[in-house]
Design a protein that fits this description.
Elements lengths: L2 H25 L3 H12 L12 H18 L3 H6 L1 H26 L5 H11 L4 H10 L4 H30 L4 H31 L4 H21 L4 H19 L2 H28 L1 H8 L6 H32 L2 H4 L5 H8 L6 H7 L9 H20 L1 H8 L6 H26 L6 H19 L9 H26 L4 H20 L10
Length: 528
Amino acid sequence: MDPVITIVWIVSFVLVTVVVTGLSRRVGWSAPVVLVAVGAAASFIPGVPEVQLEPELVLYGLLPPLLFAAAIQTSIVDVRARRDGILLLSVGLVAFTVLVVGFATWLVVPAITVAAAFAFGAVVAPTDTVAVTAVAGRVHLPRRLVTLLEGESLLNDATALVALNASIAAIVSVVNPWSIAGDFVLAVVVGSGVGLAVAWIVAQVRKRLRSPVLDTSLALITPYLAFIPSQFLHGSGVLAVVSAGLYLGFRSPTIQTAEARIAETINWRTVSFLLENAVFLFIGLELRTILSGAFTSGITVPQTIGISVVVLIALVLARFAWMVMTTALYRYGPERLRERRWSWPTGIAVSFAGIRGVVTLAAAFLLPASTPHREFLQFLAFVVVVATLLEGLALPWVIRRLRLPPPDFAQEASEMQRLLAEAQSAGLEHLESKVTGDEDERVIERLRINAVFLSEALENPTPEDHEDAPIEYQRLRRSMISAEREAVLAARAEGRYQEPAVRSVLAFLDAEEAALKSSGPGGRKSMM
């Protein structure tokens, strides 16, 4: 294809992704589902180029930045607190799903081998980070539930890929359980080790960088620095990226400048938005290619419908049964587990959040050419992805019916204000220790007023019929900033100041407004 035509199609692809996602959010629809539908419809339009998924492109090109962007925003403190539950989902549930779905596939797909059936079970076993994040972003899920789902989706790809490699090996040769166990241990040890080693090296470099541009440029290649060496060493690239992201996200306040942290946050939000939503459009565009292969498999339409129903039922029941067993284990098992038990409604909600995505589709194309009914299994993987996305639409309804408590944003805002007041008190103590008496008294007085404002507001709360003082300050100050920005733009239009001065003042106002937004109700969520 001509390079100019290729660029035009890429720009069109991104434009459609942005427009469809924006419109879906405005009307309250699920952007992933709409993007898949739009892509599927577009795949049959004459002139639209045929899209054929390259699994290596997804695994080496798209997956590392998506995992890294999610990992650096995930609290390592929360993951450690829920590590046993996350491991049960990311390892135990994946293995259980491989067995259940593999056995069901072997029973209903004609002339398929056991190895090929379990390979398909490994293909559809992992939930998708992108899809889970998209759903969690639309629904105000309890924090504990979000931690479980995000931790599961970050780590279960590693388990599924090890199971897939073992099944593929069984298709073309003979394997034994000990080799599978050894491959899993090697993947975990090497993947985690490479990820942490790369993260430590990157952290040492970041400590010495003072340019946000250089820091952000290093951040953009970090997931690949972790993923590629780990894969070459037969480790889990997924675990390497997740380990590096969790470590660097936790260490960022001590190794990066404030400007670098702000720049990195904005850049990764942009990268995540484009990749996460483009992935679903890409899945839809695959439909024509997948259907053309499925029609050559020799399996009739009635058989296809029946097989699809059986596989989907097995997939849903496997997740539901596992959550029933693990919830019971936490509620009625040893005291150590009972202390961290979750409720039955939480277990049911987790069972409804088994959404699959692009990793499942890419893994289906990793099946070797000698796999029986390979094209049909790829079509079946597409059906699973679309069906679980539609299942995700019911999650808000399920959450409401289960009456799970949403995050307490008022309590979170209160905790944020108390912590900020504590930090400002420490800053005030530091200021008093540094004052020599030679400073301008107006400067010292201004610093003292700013430091004690929040603590005084907390010690002397506003009457219930009035707006809280910190919130009132944020509202009025943001209104003032809007007026100040208009004044600066008017001065620019009149030509009374040079452009460097105008840009500097606008940047100062933007930084203050962003700080007010991040400390307002909803915190960082209001900035998304």
